[in-house]
Amino acid sequence: MMAIPIEGEIVQIHSYKHNGHIHRVWQETMVLKSTPKIIIGANERTLVTESDGRTWLTREPSITYFHTELWFNIICMLREDGVYYYCNMSSPFVFDNNAIKYIDYDLDVKVFPDMSYTLLDEDEYEQHKEEMEYPPVIDRILKANVNKLISWIQQRRGPFAPDFIEAWTSRHRLYKEMHNPE
Q1: 54 classed as catalytic
Q2: For 146-169, what is each residue's pLDDT tens digit?
Q3: List 24, 140, 157, 171, catalytic entry
Q4: Residue 67 belongs to domain with CATH number
Q5: Does residue 178 belong to any structural domain of this protein?
């Protein structure tokens, strides 16, 4: 069985490409929920390092959602005008060496506060599918999971449920207070 992080612990997030190359690293994410299947985390102004060495800081607080049986992960970005969701089509995660790790499969779904959504990076997906020789089974799994993700959005399931953000942002506040008592 895979080790899982402790709630309240700070971990990294490592995104890879199908060829095994590192794609992006998020320096610090606080674990809010940790089970053998799901990790929910939070980060705010965390350092992100791109594969070419460029770095940037995330702008807004976000809640992250990872699952061991789903081929997508979800970043819920808390902006002044509402919650925006960035959904990466990806392999299910593994937790290894204090990092949440997954393979990023290019396709992304951006969801707006009104729950409208748009599928992004289809060209990049087709290009990488050829270059990195994604097996047909991966292509089928990813397409099925795009449909599953869209049904979650339409049914307001998981991170798209109305009370999800409030529940996890208040948990994050609680953990921050526990780690930084005045």
Answers
A1: no
A2: 999 999 999 999 999 989 999 999
A3: 24
A4: 2.40.380.10
A5: no
